[in-house]
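Protocol step 4 of 6.
Sequence for tRNA 5-carboxymethoxyuridine methyltransferase (Metapseudomonas resinovorans) entered exactly as in the expression construct, tag removed. Do not edit the line below.
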Amino acid sequence: MSDRHFDELATRFAEKIYGGAKGAIRLAVLQTDLSEVLPDRPLRVLDVGAGLGHMALWLAERGHQVTLAEPAEPMLEGARQRFAEAGHAATFIQAPWQELLGQLTEPYDLVLCHAVLEWLADPHAILPVLHQLTAKDGMLSLAFYNKDALIYRNLLKGHFRKLRKHKFAGEGQSLTPQQPLDPRDLAIQLAGHWQVERQSGVRVFHDYMPQEFQAKAELVDLLEMELAYRRHPSYQGLGRYLHWICRPL
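Step 5 output, C-alpha cells:
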C-alpha cells in the first residue's frame, strides 16, 4: 500500500465531496469549530493536503497568511484558480507531506490536516511532522475518516460478510479511504505530544438518512441540525469524519 493522491480523480472529488450537502456540512462544521478558537489576529496557516483550497481560502478571506501544500497538481491548480477568482494571495507548494520539513523552515500558528491521514499508507507516520510544523503556542486542526462510522453504516446495510472479513478500505476508483481510522488508536498516538481540546463529529446523521428524506431536507435545516448535534455525546462519535482541535504539548 502507498499514499493515495488525487491526480486522476480531482474532478470527481470536487463533484462528489463539494457538489452537495456533504461538502457544505463538512465546511460548516470545520469553519464553525475554528471560528470558536482562532485568535483575533492574523495567523500563519499551513494547509497540509489542501486539496481544492476551500478551507485555505476561507482563512485567507479572514486576513490570515496561508500556505497550501498539496501533492496532486490538478488539485493544486484548482486551488490556484479558486484563489485567483477570489482575488486573494497565497503560497502554493506541490509536495507530499514527507517533503515539507525540507521546504518549510518556520512553524505555523495553525496547521490544517483534513481528510489526509486515511489516504496514507501509514497514517500515524505524519503526526511527528505535523508536530514540528506547528508552533509551540499554535494549534492543529485534524479531521479524519471515522472507522466507527463506516462500521455502523455497514451494519445498517447488512454488509455482515464485509464486516466479518474486516474489509473497510475502498478499492479502485472508490472515494472510500484506504485506511479509515479508529479514533481510540489515534488518541493513543497523539497522547504525550498533543492535547485534544475540542472534538466534533462531521455529518453525524446526514449520511444515515434514507435518500428520500435527504432529498426533501432543506440545506439550511441540515446545517443547523448538524451543528447543533456535532458535539452531543450520543451522536458525535457517529460522524463520518471527526474533527479534533489539538494543542502541542
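Step 6, annotate. The chain has eleven helices and seven strands.
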